[in-house]
Amino acid sequence: MTTFYRKLLLLLLVSIITISGFAQNFIGQHKQYIRQNVKQAYPGFNFDKEVNNGKKSFLKYVNTLEEQTLLFILDENGICTSTARMYNSWLFSKIKGELDKKYKRKDSLTWYDSINGNVYEIFIKKGNWFFTVITRPKK
Description:
By secondary structure, the protein is an alpha+beta fold. It has one domain (3-137). It contains three helices and eight strands. The chain has helices spanning 3-20, 31-41, 92-102; strands at residues 46-53, 56-63, 68-74, 80-88, 104-107, 110-115, 118-126, 130-137. It has an eight-stranded antiparallel sheet with strand order 1-2-3-4-8-7-6-5, covered by helices on one side. Strand 1 (46-53) and strand 2 form a beta hairpin. The longest helix has 18 residues, at 3-20.
């Protein structure tokens, strides 16, 4: 396989994995359901750890190939209340463009999604070397 085709294949895989990451947010689901289904919804992500901090806890998944981290924030009953996905800053324009295509835009860094009558707010929080896409029920 030539270098060109290897690069093309890698680009296609990265695009598919990135787009599939917006497929399901798991908000309202129990942590056991998330553990059973995250591999299918987020290919390339592997379980890293579960952290319990009293009333709030989270499941952490990492994708070492794409250097991404995915957190499922849980309440005291193990129900997902929000998600946070961290990306390298060089992916900002690409991810923002994908959010613009898939969701209804509120402002430059906020979108809305509606699933089964529930409205979710999706927003970007910028850091120095990375940014985070946070999904939570609309307030």
